[in-house]
Write a structure and sequence with these properties.
Shape: rod-shaped
Structural class: mainly alpha
Order of helices and strands: HHHHHHHHHHHHHHHHHHH
Strand content: under 5%
């Protein structure tokens, strides 16, 4: 039992003994003066009140004076029923879905979490370092072959389910709408000019081989090749320089048609999906996935294991702080997080409320009677001793009142 409760019990007992001493003294002296009669009545009634409350308090936890009086030692004898009652009270008042939902309705869990993450108290800044270390330990402790297989299988499955054609079409539409396709077209034209310049000899040889004997004998094949090359160079240069050049407009029109087909044409969807399947079936794709996993895992481990400025823990801590600020100031995010928290806790109460209650009940049932008695008495023993003290004093006052009425009559 805690020291304050023990001190209060000794005080209540000492007060009862004091009333007994006053009663004996007043009984011897009451013939000398009428005032001693009032003191005797006070002490006598105080003893009765104090003894009655001592019996009541003691009977809760044990048999008074060790005597097996009926309906005493109430808590030890009814330990299992008390456990069931506590569990039922907990379930009825705290773990039913309506009660949980009502108590959480005014709770802003998102803002509280945001304050914790954005403004950690001294010592809580280690949260980022702890999270980084935990991630690294988990990555290193798991079976890398199985983990890598799971990660690659998940990525492959995600790619297989991905509707690639509409995605590409929408990306191309966005590029055209924002004018970001023009640098790509111009770069393609310049690359074409460079390729043509690098293969001039090949072009001249093809024209020479295709020309007939008379053209070759007269040397017209060389002049023809020069004209064709000059025309191509001029066409490519004008396409780059002139914004509304017909070739440039035709390329843009073709890109717009391709974007439309990628988004809306089922035949194009089927062709893109077929190409995607062919790529994924190629052994080179599996090798790419292996390399992607290994590089990603190595980079993540390096990031979370690195210390000091710029280390993984610093980056994780900064990310957590940024998340905390978003939770504090973004009303829409707060709404989503609070709604999720309420639904989650209500779901926990619905699915696991019975198990929680059963755990409480079984835990109390497993305690022996002495443990239950000591824990309850330790929690409320000090207040129960006040009952004894108040009973002693109130009983004494009632005794004085009765004695005063008796004297007056």
């Amino acid at each position: 039992m805690a020291d304050p409760a023990r001190r209060m019990r000794l005080f209540a007992t000492a007060l009862l003994l004091l009333m007994a001493a006053l009663f004996l003294a007043a009984r011897q002296l009451e013939t000398q003066h009428a005032g001693w009669g009032f003191l005797r009545a006070f002490a006598e009634a105080a003893m009765v009140g104090g003894l009655a409350d001592w019996f009541a308090v003691t009977a809760l936890f044990r048999h008074p004076l060790g005597l097996p009086i009926p309906h005493t030692a109430i808590i030890p004898d009814n330990k299992d029923r008390i456990a069931d009652s506590m569990a039922a009270f907990l379930k009825a008042n705290f773990l039913t879905p309506p009660v949980v939902a009502r108590r959480l309705r005014g709770l802003n869990a998102a803002n509280a979490a945001g304050q914790y993450l954005a403004n950690p108290r001294p010592g809580e800044s280690r949260l980022g370092a702890g999270a980084a270390s935990l991630i690294a330990d988990v990555l290193e402790s798991l079976d890398q072959e199985k983990l890598g297989g799971m990660a690659k299988a998940a990525l492959r499955s995600r790619i297989e389910r991905l509707a690639l054609a509409p995605l590409l079409g929408n990306l191309l539409r966005a590029m055209i709408a924002e004018g970001r396709h023009m640098p790509l077209i111009e770069a393609l034209i310049r690359r074409s000019a460079e390729a043509l310049e690098a293969n001039e000899d090949l072009v001249r040889r093809i024209i020479h081989d295709k020309a007939n004997t008379i053209v070759r004998w007269t040397g017209l094949d060389g002049r023809l090749a020069n004209g064709i090359l000059d025309g191509l160079y001029k066409l490519l240069a004008e396409t780059v320089v002139i914004a509304d050049h017909p070739l440039r407009l035709k390329i843009e029109e073709s890109l717009e048609s391709l974007a439309e087909a990628l988004v809306n044409d089922p035949a194009m969807h089927a062709r893109v999906e077929a190409m995607k399947r062919d790529v994924m079936a190629n052994p080179a794709f599996a090798a790419w996935l292996d390399g992607l996993w290994e590089r990603g895992r190595a980079q993540l481990l390096g990031a979370v294991r690195s210390g000091g400025s710029g280390g993984g823990s610093d980056r994780i801590g900064a990310s957590l702080a940024e998340l905390g600020r978003a939770l504090q100031h973004d009303a829409r995010l707060q709404l989503l997080v609070n709604r999720f928290a309420r639904r989650t806790l209500v779901g926990v109460a619905t699915r696991h409320g019975g198990e929680i209650v059963r755990l409480v009940s079984e835990t109390v049932r497993r305690w022996d009677a002495r443990t239950v008695t000591d824990r309850i008495e330790g929690a409320v023993g000090r207040d129960l001793q006040f009952i004894r003290i108040n009973g002693t004093l109130v009983g004494g006052l009632v005794g004085v009142a009765i004695h005063a009425v008796d004297v007056a009559l």
